[in-house]
Amino acid sequence: MTIVFKISDNVKEKVMLYYKDLFKEKTPPYAVFQAQDADTTITLYESGKIMFQGVSADVDANVWLELEKKLNNRQIDVESANHDVKKTEASKLDVATIGSDEVGTGDFFGPIVVTATFTSPANFAFLEELGVRDSKKIDDAKILAIAPEIMKKIPYATIILDNVTYNQKYSKNNNMNKLKAILHNKALYEIKSKNYSYAKIVVDEFCSKEKYYEYLKDTTPLVEHITFMTKAEDKVLSVACASIISRYTFLKKMDELSDSLHIPLPKGAGPNVDEVAKEIKEKYGMKKLNEIAKMNFSNTKRLN
What we know:
Elements: E1 2-6, H1 9-19, E2 31-37, E3 40-45, E4 49-54, H2 57-72, H3 78-90, E5 97-103, E6 112-119, H4 121-130, H5 140-153, E7 156-161, H6 163-169, H7 176-192, E8 200-204, H8 209-215, E9 226-229, H9 237-261, H10 271-284, H11 286-292, H12 298-301
Parallel strand pairs: 5-8, 8-9
Antiparallel strand pairs: 1-4, 2-3, 3-4, 5-6, 6-7
Helix pairs in contact: 5-9, 10-11
């Protein structure tokens, strides 16, 4: 049984005093403490959330729920609070997985980055507390803050396809999805070869299963038995982590390119990108664009 709710500051003080002799030596990331009281594990997070896990979790939690009511006139609806928690948890695979996701395929400037990660239930509390989810739903400032924390704790493999190589490889028979499939396979193989114990390999679906393997028919080694899932970054923590690490790497590469040009490079492929592309062409020539941009994009045609 797991019960989670947010406690008030005055109750937090009493909780810490009550459990101080039961603190564990090792504390999970972003936790104030973790204690073991008989068969219940109690974890207090910096956010103010307190989690009770174990057979008697409801008994232990009720002590503090009653105190909230007495001291603060708070009637906490645990069933409702835990419904939200369970709803979040239910939307994610609660097993160890390897997952991959990519960034940069819709951006004229910058590389394509694919990352694969391995996550297990032992990491879930840490990742949930960080607010891990699809990188497209997290602003860049938070990506830059939490990605290094994830990268310290979660095994990952990142493959970067730079623009020069992309422009050399891209063709009608070597389209974007085929290049993505090759990169995903490389990243997944790198993680899989480390022999982690996992239940599923999940890829955020960008093409059908049949087409994916068709793209890779001449590829060895080939990672098989993949689960292809739409919006996997919202459902599988390993894919969400992969999304965040890929985004972080992409942002860092964009910063490096911007610094080298002394021109801030915009993301995406809109009119603002056209303006910057024209500036770079005038200042550095088309050769430089070939080094920093995906030349098959329509932005290139609009330069003329």
